[in-house]
Amino acid sequence: xxxxxxxxxxxxxxxxxxxxxxxxxxxxxxxxxxxxxxxxxxxxxxxxxxxxxxxxxxxxxxxxxxxxxxxxxxxxxxxxxxxxxxxxxxxxxxxxxxxxxxxxxxxxxxxxxxxxxxxxxxxxxxxxxxxxxxxxxxxxxxxxxxxxxxxxxxxxxxxxxxxxxxxxxxxxxxxxxxxxxxxxxxxxxxxxxxxxxxxxxxxxxxxxxxxxxxxxxxxxxxxxxxxxxxxxxxxxxxxxxxxxxxxxxxxxxxxxxxxxxxxxxxxxxxxxxxxxxxxxxxxxxxxxxxxxxxxxxxxxxxxxxxxxxxxxxxxxxxxxxxxxx
Amino acid sequence: xxxxxxxxxxxxxxxxxxxxxxxxxxxxxxxxxxxxxxxxxxxxxxxxxxxxxxxxxxxxxxxxxxxxxxxxxxxxxxxxxxxxxxxxxxxxxxxxxxxxxxxxxxxxxxxxxxxxxxxxxxxxxxxxxxxxxxxxxxxxxxxxxxxxxxxxxxxxxxxxxxxxxxxxxxxxxxxxxxxxxxxxxxxxxxxxxxxxxxxxxxxxxxxxxxxxxxxxxxxxxxxxxxxxxxxxxxxxxxxxxxxxxxxxxxxxxxxxxxxxxxxxxxxxxxxxxxxxxxxxxxxxxxxxxxxxxxxxxxxxxxxxxxxxxxxxxxxxxxxxxxxxxxxxxxxxxxxxxxxxxxxxxxxxxxxxxxxxxxxxxxxxxxxxxxxxxxxxxxxxxxxxxxxxxxxxxxxxxxxxxxxxxxxxxxxxxxxxxxxxxxx
Amino acid sequence: xxxxxxxxxxxxxxxxxxxxxxxxxxxxxxxxxxxxxxxxxxxxxxxxxxxxxxxxxxxxxxxxxxxxxxxxxxxxxxxxxxxxxxxxxxxxxxxxxxxxxxxxxxxxxxxxxxxxxxxxxxxxxxxxxxxxxxxxxxxxxxxxxxxxxxxxxxxxxxxxxxxxxxxxxxxxxxxxxxxxxxxxxxxxxxxxxxxxxxxxxxxxxxxxxxxxxxxxxxxxxxxxxxxxxxxxxxxxxxxxxxxxxxxxxxxxxxxxxxxxxxxxxxxxxxxxxxx
Lengths: 325, 423, 275
Fold this sequence. Notes:
The complex is a heterotrimer. Chain A is an all-alpha fold.
């Protein structure tokens, strides 16, 4: 009898929790449904149509996807996106870690000021930041070229040289590399440097947090074993920081795939020979300059698939190596 | 009874007044930024003060391409303006879907109006025999040059180069090199990457060489033909010989030109006044040099009324665009920007001679009109132009040879034209 | 001996850190410096670190040319309301995801998380059509509501709530508090650092957003600062001084907000950024 009653109460409780749970998530769910999930379905349907925004859409099946996968421009923009990611990710992480290690010393003065300064670029508007970098690397009046000239060098066309930086090195030996290996153009390098500038502060703060959570006992034990500083870093610090690294890797990858604002401000035509035309820029142009709406949406779904695959890959293969305490 | 009557009279009077001076609010989207905007705003406010029943609100919506995007999306949400300034190239994008008002009905009431518009300008707004806009800010591509640099190089600043050959010779003289061989000043800057400007500048070169960009029915791209390919070779040689800077985009080139580090380049007549007011050196303006033919390109915009505007508003809107392009105002606009007068009566007026006295640099643009050709148009013109300017960029950067680049581009453009016809 | 080494080490560290700080700050400084140079000085003397004849001309021109004050106000309204709504919606859903057990919870949670991977540009046109259907073009609600809730804020707050010990709320429940009261009385005060982080990030994100306003605003009185800035850039010309003045104005409010919140903010990243 009592058992039965308890069960009823439990059931009742479960039901109440069920209702409560849904009530609590309903505002978020509503917004996401109306403004994310529904548009997603709409975009998915549209990706199977040809639509110029003015005439009625025409169903064309997988044609948009086939066109994209066959298009040289699409694959080039994927290549440029990879350059951007490969440029931004490692340097942001390494420099972020480097500064975090320097700032970790609790006997140092002014660490909070440094931390604050390093974080400033993170909160800066990408548009304003891009305009600032544009001004620094301007051909005629940019201070970068001014310094180069002062040091006796020749001014560089930062934002209008299409040659890949690796190819530039090999030019000295008269070797022409295959396109994939030529590396990002100078213009892309400037945009990458902006990306790094805006990322370092974030990486530093995350790494600092990671460092603070590493208990001193590890180091003390290692010292007793006579480990060198370098060994301690390699065998204790780095592995124990792997959750931070993993977190940053995921965040930066997702954000880097979607870089757009700085590119549009610094190279509104897509850079010299389109070498800064990353995937989102390509997508934007197809949608809002050429009005190939259906095609642009197909490209966006391909991009989403790639991001999803990358993230799953990172979770499956990298998270194994992450050392959660 | 009396009371009631008087009430009625007041009511009727009120009705009449509201009717006669009905306040029609018109929203007008335009692409006139920076230096042209003040002149435009002045015209609009003068219209408002002289037309008590109508109030026009002018809104800057970004450059021509951005305005197209804005208008396209506005149609999706039915949030469209009443009047819009569209690049003459872009009219077709909207007439294809009947989104612009056919102005025939107004023009038939005003028979003398049509014949007063300069003929080649009028042609740009007529699509399939129907006028969809009034030409407003039409420009010619002109050769701008730095007279100070001409003098410094021992050249006569009143003698601009008249042929390609002369231009190349002059440009060589105007290119200055430091002892280490690096150029500190270039002679020429023509048609390089920068959104939509590159091909706009390149196109007249093909015409001057006797070629065409498209066949007359707009079904085939002809840049793979010898006249266009030869032009591209010649243009590339300007970079190879070092009279043009090899690695500079349009923005950087303009900057260098303003700073007196580039001597010559083609620019739209719509910027003459801005240049005169802001450049720290003397500006010369001349016709583009000729080769086998003399030609320049017509650019600029027109004023159109949207087809979904109510009848009452249509009349007011027509009133506005007619007023903006009347003889007096087109002259004001010409004097303050450099965009060409669109009316024949303005071209033959006494006033224009006074303007030339004040700003002699404005005169060559008018003299160029007989040689100016409208640019070919198509619904997908933006994508087509980007494809063509990518091709000339590939040649400039030595990725492809001229024949190869234009062969590939022509193929791509033909495909765009074909798929557009199937839509 | 080792003391000496320690001092040298410190000097070395500081000099590296100062060099880093210099690189971080230089673009700000350079933009600020240029913004006080007249066009003439920018042309003649673009490289003097400090303007020889400082002028407010660029700022004056900016405010005369475009209604920047109005744009600032719009950005401020949109960013603060978006922030408040994001915090409220995130608190509710984060509480549900971290404390309540109900059927379909994990599935919904992962569905929310997956939205982080969708490229924003993909959704713009359908979102635009929906907002147009509601008649929200050129309105504050059109600018705000589509972003009133996000997966990131929910996720972030959930992580934080998980770190709050359960006994605290158990005591409150025994005292007769319902879930909403627990949320307000227990979670809200305890989550101050996390909430201030969300506040800064949401505000910053909203303040810096460009695409969505570009799409749905076409009257000047509703434009935001970023629109003004980008439009200004599009206008061409070479008004570098004015560009930089615009950048300074667009960045300053967000930097001020950051200065006030930064203490909490770094603490809460320390607490939740990982895990």
